[in-house]
């Protein structure tokens, strides 16, 4: 298995670069992973990422898109709670 290094810690990832243990995830590591994919995460990205993390930690499943947009609209407003914003 390949590893990803961040701040002196080695994280096991699969061949596609996904963490093998979701519980070791942290925002610093997410930033490193995004940069490896050529992405600079904006605050808008972080809003969605944080929501998804909280939802997954609570329910142990990713939300359906309908639930995601509804909950994002409640938390951040209608301009962010729609599929056009997400895609």
UniProtKB/TrEMBL annotation:
One of its GO terms (biological process) is tRNA wobble position uridine thiolation. It is found in: Cytoplasm. Keywords: Cytoplasm. It holds the Pfam family DsrC. One of its GO terms (molecular function) is sulfur carrier activity. GO terms for cellular component: cytoplasm. Coiled coil: none annotated. Its main location: cytoplasm. The keyword Transcription does not apply. NCBIfam families: dsrC_tusE_dsvC. Belongs to the DsrC/TusE family. This is Sulfurtransferase TusE. It comes from marine sediment metagenome.
């Amino acid at each position: 298995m390949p590893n990803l290094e961040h701040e002196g810690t080695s994280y096991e990832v699969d061949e596609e670069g996904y963490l093998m243990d979701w519980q070791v995830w942290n925002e610093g590591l997410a930033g490193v992973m995004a940069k490896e994919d050529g992405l600079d995460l904006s605050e808008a990205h972080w809003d969605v990422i944080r929501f998804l993390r909280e939802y997954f930690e609570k329910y142990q499943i990713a939300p359906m898109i309908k639930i995601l947009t509804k909950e994002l609209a409640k938390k951040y407003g209608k301009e962010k709670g729609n599929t056009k914003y997400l895609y």
